[in-house]
Amino acid sequence: MDTQSQVVERLRTVFSSGITIPEQFRRTQLTKLMSMIKDNEEEILNALHKDLAKPKFEAILSEVDIVINELHYAIANFANWMKAEYVSKTLATRLDDCFIRREPLGVVLIIGPWNYPLQLLLLPLVGAIAAGNCVVIKPSEVSAATDRLIAELIPKYLSQDCYAVVRGGAEETKALLQNRFDRIFYTGKSFQDGSDPVTAASVHLTPVTLELGGKCPCFIYGRVNIAAAARRLAWAKFFNAGQSCVAPDYVLCSPATRDALLPALRETLEEFYSKEPQTCPDLSRIVSPRHWTRLMDLLGRSSGKVVVGGESNQEDKYIAPTVVVDVAEDDALMQEEIFGPILPILTVESLEKGIELINRKEKPLALYVFSDESSVVNTVLEKTSSGGFCSNDGIIYMTLPSLPFGGVGASGWGSYHGRWGFEEFSHRRACMLRGWALERLNGLRYPPYREDKLSW
Ligand code: NAD
């Protein structure tokens, strides 16, 4: 078996041969990727169930269909994205061909996380293939069944010359990062030992895309349809048992809204997951005992009051959908991204105070505002910053391939989905093709320099 560096070198040689450049080659690979998912849907769903007890419905929506939709969108559009983009010209360049040419970067590395182990590897892969790159794909070892399946399927469907899966955990990933890539696309956050991809990439001056996380607020303010708000909030929060980078991390609202929201949330959660959520097949499990312990520890350190849920079972890696009130800004639940089925509710006195609280924290990946009042929505939109923004719903904005998906500041660098993924894996080469015309006009810039030449 090739070592990691042999894999990268092999792909580099293949890339130099130009095989990934023709549109038809890219189209074939994208179509094969589509077949891979369609032919193996059952195995994919089983693997996701093994890793996270992912309900079939959620897995189809957020892992299978989202990738299929991205593929349809890319296959329909990437030939247009590849076309030269002609730009406006000046008088001195009016006879020239001035355009931007999208070129593949070369050999790129995609490192994926465990929470949506298929989607978060394959969506960037679609952009990387459409842009004409060779790709090293590193699935998360934490979602072991999906990791194994991806490593088995990719070589069966995609060109083995151009795309390689490398498996392993933190140590293998750190070693992999020692190699030179032309872009590193990293989704996750579990590098807190100074071995982050950015430091590794800086040695080779490799550009890095970082799809990170953070604490996504859900600010409920002013007039609001409480029943609908409770359903949309609960769905976005407890989908995948809260293990979504764009899940609402905490709720901000007035005391009166909290009092109205709580019974609505209780009713919704019972409707969604029954009186006995542990027996409900529609609720995922926490990915590993380590992550379960982290969440229970976080809940244990909170001085808030659990008003819904709170039950757990270590063996089953189960945590009930849990709502916590009386949570202060310095509470344990407010210090890190929760990434699990625990929803703290904080109260604020006014719209301004809520905005101030949001702005005291790092810029989140997503920000949600629930309100019937457009002035509230617009004020929050204008006075805050986040990777994405959605009013009166959660998560759903990221399913639209025409919107860029990514963070800002501490929630990430760069974006993808649809054309944005293609762009992230392309170099925009500035091209000016000139002839020999207008040489007298050009003469104005040659020595001997005279003041009057400047004022022409
Ligand atoms: P993870 O533990 O699966 O790690 C992600 C990847 O990094 C894995 O492939 C893993 O092997 C590798 N890795 C682990 N330790 C490493 C190290 N020291 N150096 C280099 N690579 C290493 O996933 P995670 O980090 O727990 O993912 C959860 C986090 O990711 C959350 O914070 C979440 O918000 C974020 N996330 C962001 C997005 C997004 O699109 N922005 C999507 C999903 C998850």
> Which secondary-structure class do the elements indicate?
alpha/beta
Mean pLDDT: 96
Radius of gyration, in angstroms, nearest whole number: 25 Å
How does the overall form come out from the CA principal axes? globular
Count of DSSP H/I helices: 16
GO biological process, one term: aldehyde metabolic process
Organism: Dicentrarchus labrax (European seabass)
InterPro entries: Ald_DH/histidinol_DH, Ald_DH_C, Ald_DH_CS_CYS, Ald_DH_N, Aldehyde_DH_dom, Aldehyde_DH_NAD(P)
Keywords: NAD, Oxidoreductase
Write a structural description.
This protein is an alpha/beta fold. It is built from 16 helices and 18 strands. The longest helix has 27 residues, at 56-82. The structure holds nicotinamide-adenine-dinucleotide. Nicotinamide-adenine-dinucleotide binds next to helix 7.
